[in-house]
Structures are given as structure tokens and as C-alpha cells.
């Protein structure tokens, strides 16, 4: 069926399909990344990765991806999402941990290439404020954890 969010059928693929697509896109024009849109890549049943938006060029806003992880595989106890308040609190906690992990890995840098140099590589999650609120960057929904990232796709050699 047609997926209302994408306006077309969401296609399922594997992590190997994603790897093959990226290898085949190497050194191709930047707009080839658009082929990633509308795919849901399954990483061995552990999580899925979906491209919600693919940037049109290296100087556009970063691409947006969503990682979906089943709550039962997350090892968080059932009580931690058993009420709406706990649901929001768990999502906020996951968001904060993810922001810290990305920072610790130094993956939140933003390459600042000129017109002749490569760009991309940035990975970030919208950081939460000091308040614990319902956010779109991390949500608990239909038995899944949804974590949304911004990703600057690499542009070197394009």
C-alpha cells in the first residue's frame, strides 16, 4: 500500500542493500542520494533506518533519518514506558544519552568545505532543553523507540 508520509510505497531493504546503494553512488552526482528516500533499511531485526528527507546538495539543510528500535529489544524495563509521563521521560532520557554519545564520538562536527572541497559527515540529534518535554527527536510510539537524526551526507568527489 501507499505510505501517507512518503506519498508512495515504502520499500523494505536490508543493511547490505544500503551498503550496496552507497557504494554504487560513490563519485556520482549528489542528487543520486535522492534514491535513498522512501526506503526502510532493516539492520538484522535490531533496528530499521529510514530516510525522511534527503538533502539536494551539500550546502542544503542536512538529510533527516529516523531509526526505529523495538522497545522489547531495547532492554528498558516495561515500567519505564508504562504511562504517558514515563513514556515522555524515557524518550527524553534516550535523546539526552544519544546527544552525549554523538558528542563523545566527535560525530557532531560540521565540515566547512569551500566550493572545491568536500563537505558532510555531520551527525546530530536536536538537543533537548532543561525541560522534559514531548519531542520529535526521540519518541516512544506503537511499541517502538523512534530516534530522528540530521546527517550531512558526504560531498567529496561530487
Summarize the structure in words.
By secondary structure, the protein is of the alpha+beta class. It is built from 3 helices and 7 strands, in the order E-H-E-E-E-H-H-E-E-E. It has helices at residues 15-25, 71-74, 84-104, and strands at residues 11-14, 39-43, 47-53, 63-70, 123-124, 138-141, 144-151. Strands 1, 2, 3, 4, 5, 6 and 7 form a 7-stranded mixed β-sheet that branches. The protein is globular. The model is unreliable at 114-118 (pLDDT under 50).
Structural class, please? Answer: alpha+beta
Give the H and E element order.
Answer: EHEEEHHEEE
Helix count?
A: 3
How far is it from the N-terminal to the C-terminal residue, by CA?
35 Å
Report Rg: 17 Å
What is the overall pLDDT average?
84
Task: Characterize the main sheet.
Answer: 7 strands, mixed
Descriptive tags:
globular; 158 residues; 7 strands; alpha+beta; 7-stranded mixed sheet; 24% strand
Note the topology.
Blueprint: E1 11-14, H1 15-25, E2 39-43, E3 47-53, E4 63-70, H2 71-74, H3 84-104, E5 123-124, E6 138-141, E7 144-151
Parallel strand pairs: 1-2
Antiparallel strand pairs: 2-3, 3-4, 4-7, 5-7, 6-7
Amino acid at each position: 500500500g501507499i505510505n501517507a508520509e512518503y506519498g508512495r510505497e515504502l520499500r523494505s531493504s536490508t543493511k547490505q542493500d544500503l551498503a550496496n546503494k552507497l557504494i554504487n553512488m560513490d563519485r556520482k552526482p549528489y542528487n543520486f542520494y535522492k534514491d535513498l528516500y522512501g526506503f526502510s533499511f532493516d539492520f538484522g531485526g535490531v533496528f530499521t533506518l529510514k530516510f525522511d528527507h534527503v538533502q539536494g546538495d551539500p550546502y542544503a539543510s542536512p538529510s533527516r533519518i529516523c531509526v526505529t528500535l523495538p522497545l522489547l529489544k531495547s532492554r528498558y524495563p516495561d515500567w519505564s514506558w508504562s504511562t504517558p509521563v514515563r513514556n515522555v521521560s524515557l524518550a527524553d532520557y534516550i535523546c539526552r544519552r544519544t546527544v552525549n554519545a554523538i558528542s563523545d564520538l566527535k560525530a557532531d562536527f560540521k565540515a566547512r568545505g569551500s566550493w572545491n572541497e568536500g563537505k558532510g559527515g555531520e551527525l546530530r540529534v536536536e538537543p533537548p532543553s532543561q525541560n522534559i518535554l514531548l519531542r520529535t527527536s526521540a519518541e516512544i510510539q506503537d511499541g517502538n523507540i523512534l530516534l530522528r537524526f540530521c546527517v550531512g551526507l558526504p560531498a567529496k568527489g561530487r
